[in-house]
């Protein structure tokens, strides 16, 4: 697949590194030669020092043969213009990074398609959605709803109170049990488990279940004593924080701490309807945190632009008794360190944006793709075509590659877990988990 990426900043660089490992034909365009030099030397991709809004440069990059054109420069207008040109010159699909929420209205989708922009991506909105999903359940590291909760994936850190430790999964998660363990992160290792694997203390386990059995999962993992989140404290008033506050459930009370006087004025205006309390101060100041009621706060969310600050602030909040902490960590080098410090949920906009873009690379009917950054695994929602290989045999006879498991499916709006005897049908929404395998190999089963 030929992919052209315009913009060697955070998202573009991460995408280029990620996709080059899957042996795609990648060209990275940027007008900053220094940014490109190191990437071209260390990764299997071509770089091109040029303007992404130059028709000659796009033609030189071979845009007429591009399967996917991705514009992720910091300039929204430049991205939109670049995508319009790329599509007109022959690119099959285009993706533009934006920072204007107004453009995400569903009724504008066809309008932008007519302009040549196949898909829009607003990383801050995607990150806000992940943050709020995590806050709704204080005892969960990560939550993903499929088809409005017909299926639910829960990432849970296992502690001493967990009832299902040290037992083979075949004894505790059989065909008649209301959950499957679809992935396990243990230290630096990721396991796509079979029946003989066991859950261990401090594992990060990913459960697939249906909505009605969430209380049951909470009980067996020993998290019933975790209180629900009502009071939230956010440090950092950037775009991600604004989108998170605007989309939070009404029952949550929010205090937002921001250092800049001018930004506080803006936040007071833009968040007036949400009635969030905006506080001008330093979120690392323990006396300020105590004064603002950190002891009565169930969740602390650190969203400044500095990963170290966010990690340290979450550690401080934990020490002050906050159970649920969320840190935005954009520097990938710090992600594993943050996980080892057990600070809670990690938000990385680059990985979230990459999930959305990766979906467009697959030819099968794919509704959602997510990178489980903590587990170094992918999960995707595939819809099999009539007569596809996946529909010809029960799951146990499909010969799925090592590192792949099917967690569940949604049929006619009803979620169901998948066992070896399950017969998948055309039109089902099927949840597939992969580790160390190119998802392009999996989509062949669904075409």
Strand order of the largest sheet: 3-2-1-4-5-6
Largest sheet: 6 strands, parallel
> Considering DSSP H and I runs of 4 or more, what fraction of the residues is helical?
25-40%
Flag low-confidence runs.
none
- CATH top level of the largest domain is Alpha Beta
Counted up, domains total 4
Report the CATH superfamily of the largest domain.
NAD(P)-binding Rossmann-like Domain
Structural class: alpha/beta
Residues in β-strands, percent? 25-35%
**What number is the mean pLDDT?**
88
Alpha carbon gap, first and last residue: 17 Å
Which architecture name of the largest domain does CATH use?
3-Layer(aba) Sandwich
Gyration radius over CA: 22 Å
Number of helices: 15
Task: Tally the beta strands.
Answer: 22
Globular, elongated, flat, extended or rod-shaped: what is the shape? globular
Protein name: Trk system potassium uptake protein TrkA
Organism: Segatella baroniae F0067
Domain RCK C-terminal: 141-223, 366-447
GO molecular function: potassium ion transmembrane transporter activity
Task: Note down, in words, how this protein is organized.
By secondary structure, this protein is of the alpha/beta class. It folds into four domains: 2-121, NAD(P)-binding Rossmann-like Domain (Rossmann fold, 3-Layer(aba) Sandwich); 139-221, Regulator of K+ conductance, C-terminal domain (Alpha-Beta Plaits), CATH 3.30.70; 235-322, NAD(P)-binding Rossmann-like Domain (Rossmann fold), CATH 3.40.50.720; 352-444, 2-Layer Sandwich (Alpha-Beta Plaits), CATH 3.30.70. It contains 15 helices and 22 strands. The protein has helices at residues 10-20, 33-42, 55-60, 76-88, 109-115, 123-135, 169-172, 214-220, 239-246, 261-270, 286-291, 307-319, 335-340, 349-359, 439-443, and strands at residues 2-6, 25-30, 46-49, 68-71, 93-97, 119-121, 142-146, 151-157, 179-186, 189-191, 204-209, 231-235, 253-258, 277-280, 299-302, 324-328, 345-347, 365-372, 377-383, 404-411, 414-417, 429-434. The strands form four sheets. The chain has a six-stranded parallel beta sheet, with helices on both faces. A six-stranded parallel beta sheet has the order 14-13-12-15-16-17, with helices on both faces. Strands 7-8-11-9-10 form a five-stranded antiparallel beta sheet. β5 (93-97), α5 (109-115) and β6 form a beta-alpha-beta unit. It is globular and about 65 Å long. The mean pLDDT is 88.
């Amino acid at each position: 697949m030929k992919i052209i990426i315009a913009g060697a900043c955070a998202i573009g660089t991460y995408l280029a590194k990620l996709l080059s490992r899957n042996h795609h034909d990648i060209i990275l365009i940027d007008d900053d030669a220094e940014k490109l030099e190191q990437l071209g030397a260390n990764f299997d991709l071509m770089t091109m020092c040029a303007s992404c809004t130059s028709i000659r440069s796009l033609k030189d990059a071979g845009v007429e043969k591009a399967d996917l054109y991705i514009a992720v420069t910091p300039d929204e207008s430049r991205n939109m213009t670049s995508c319009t040109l790329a599509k007109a010159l022959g690119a099959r699909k285009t993706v533009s990074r934006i920072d204007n929420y107004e453009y995400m209205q569903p009724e504008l989708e066809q309008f932008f398609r007519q302009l040549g922009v196949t898909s829009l991506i607003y990383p801050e909105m995607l990150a806000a959605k992940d943050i709020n999903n995590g806050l709704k359940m204080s005892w969960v590291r990560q939550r993903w709803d499929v088809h409005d909760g017909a299926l639910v994936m829960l990432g849970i850190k296992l502690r001493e109170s967990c009832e299902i430790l040290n037992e083979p999964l075949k004894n505790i998660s059989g065909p008649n049990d209301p959950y499957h363990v679809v992935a396990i992160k243990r230290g630096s290792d990721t396991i796509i488990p079979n029946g003989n694997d066991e859950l261990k203390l401090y594992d990060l386990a990913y459960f697939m279940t249906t909505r009605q059995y969430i209380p049951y999962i909470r009980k067996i993992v020993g998290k019933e004593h975790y209180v629900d989140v009502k009071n939230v404290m956010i440090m950092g008033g950037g775009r991600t924080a604004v989108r998170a506050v605007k989309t939070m459930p009404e029952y949550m009370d929010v205090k937002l701490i921001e250092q800049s006087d001018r930004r506080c004025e803006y936040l007071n205006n833009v968040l007036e309807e949400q009635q969030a309390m905006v506080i001008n101060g330093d979120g690392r100041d323990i006396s300020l945190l105590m004064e603002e009621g950190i002891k009565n706060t169930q969740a602390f969310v650190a969203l400044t632009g500095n990963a170290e600050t966010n990690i340290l602030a979450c550690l401080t909040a934990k020490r002050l008794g906050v159970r649920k902490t969320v840190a935005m960590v954009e520097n990938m080098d710090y992600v594993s360190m943050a996980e080892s410090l057990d600070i809670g949920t990690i938000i990385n906009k680059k990985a979230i944006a990459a999930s959305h873009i990766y979906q467009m690379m697959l030819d099968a009917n794919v509704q959602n793709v997510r990178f489980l950054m903590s587990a170094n695994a992918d999960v995707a929602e595939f819809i099999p075509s009539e007569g596809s290989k996946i529909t010809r045999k029960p799951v146990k006879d499909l010969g799925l590659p090592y590192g792949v498991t099917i967690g569940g499916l949604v049929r006619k709006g009803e979620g169901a877990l998948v066992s070896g005897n399950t017969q998948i049908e055309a039109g089902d929404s099927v949840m597939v988990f992969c580790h160390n395998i190119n998802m392009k190999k999996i989509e062949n089963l669904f075409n």
